[in-house]
TrEMBL record:
SMART domains: HTH_ARAC. InterPro entries: AraC-bd, AraC_XylS_family_regulators, Homeodomain-like_sf, HTH-like, HTH_AraC. It comes from Streptosporangium saharense. It holds the Pfam family AraC_binding. Signal peptide: none annotated. GO terms for molecular function: DNA-binding transcription factor activity; sequence-specific DNA binding. It comes from the Bacteria. Residues 185-282 form the HTH araC/xylS-type domain. The keyword Endoplasmic reticulum does not apply. This is AraC-like DNA-binding protein. Keywords: DNA-binding, Transcription, Transcription regulation.
Length: 293
């Protein structure tokens, strides 16, 4: 073990910070600047894209059946509605800057730059792109400092660069869905409609004319999440809209089906990366690292 004061070993930085905000110059794009050490994103999916650059350390995440590691300088590209998690890939954690553009934002840019490509799709979730990484960071910096023209210009340039270099055509879904596909689609519709009073898995399976275990397997194969985790993702997505509209967190918890505000806070932070209050004020949230238990 290295002795104190030897200069050969530095203690690991354990403080976590997260700053979530929106900039009027970037409509349809949320921004997150964060450093995480023990924070663990539960498996979830976003309605839009998650695009960012790793500043230091390593993020590790499971996505599309494989585990991926993103180190400093890497660009992370996660498609909409694709289940993934996220945690530190080394003891010191990781720092990154993320942009969350809506499907509409990226589709509009893709239509301008890549005629005929349709909805953008990124086959590789971790890529090396020095120009893309630099533009993402500059766009983020400009947005953070309120430079509307620079942030909007640089963000568009960053997304355009990544689309040209790394996007592909979205795989076409089958036009002849099977029984499992139909059951999953109906089950998802029911969960969307019944956030506050969801059915049991037995009742859900009965409603879509499937067996419970078969439905769970098919649902996870289609969405990457079991029904209960998918429901929590829906609740958090709905909560984000209500918080943005200024609804108090306690009321939001009840409106989306969480038993109380504490449950909303726990699930919200595991998916979004900041608590509901920080999200609502789009300000800075800083805390000591959470317990790993």
């Amino acid at each position: 073990m290295t002795g104190r004061g030897s200069g050969l070993e530095r203690p690991l930085e354990t403080k976590e910070t997260a700053h979530f905000w929106r900039n009027p110059a970037l409509p349809g794009v949320d921004l997150l600047k964060a450093r995480y050490v023990t924070h663990w994103f539960t498996r979830h999916a976003h309605a839009g894209y998650a695009i960012g650059v790793i500043l230091s350390g390593v993020e590790e995440f499971d996505y599309r059946g494989s585990r991926h590691r993103a180190g400093a300088g890497s660009v992370v590209l996660v498609d909409p509605d694709q289940a993934h998690n996220g945690h530190a890939g080394e003891p010191g954690g990781w720092a990154y800057r993320m942009l969350y553009p809506s499907v509409e934002v990226l589709t509009e840019i893709a239509e301008e730059l890549l005629a005929g490509r349709g909805t953008p799709y990124f086959p590789e979730p971790v890529v090396s792109s020095a120009r893309g990484a630099a533009l993402l960071r500059k766009a983020h910096d400009a947005a953070e400092h309120g430079d509307s023209l620079a942030s909007s210009t640089l963000a568009r340039a960053a997304f355009g660069t990544l689309l040209r270099l790394h996007a592909a055509r979205l795989p076409q879904e089958s036009t002849h869905p099977g029984d499992n596909d139909l059951a999953v689609r109906l089950a998802r519709e029911i969960l969307h409609e019944r956030l506050v009073d969801p059915p049991t898995i037995e009742d859900l399976a009965l409603a879509v004319r499937a067996k419970p275990f078969a439905l769970i397997r098919a649902f996870k194969a289609a969405t990457g999440l079991p029904p209960h985790a998918y429901l929590n993702t829906l609740r958090v997505a709905r909560a984000r809209g209500l918080l943005t509209a200024g609804v108090p967190a306690a009321q939001v918890a009840a409106d989306v089906g969480f038993t109380d505000q504490a449950h909303l806070t726990r699930h919200f932070k595991r998916i979004v990366g900041v608590p509901p209050a920080a999200y609502q004020r789009a300000g800075t949230y800083k805390t000591e690292p959470e317990s790993s238990t």
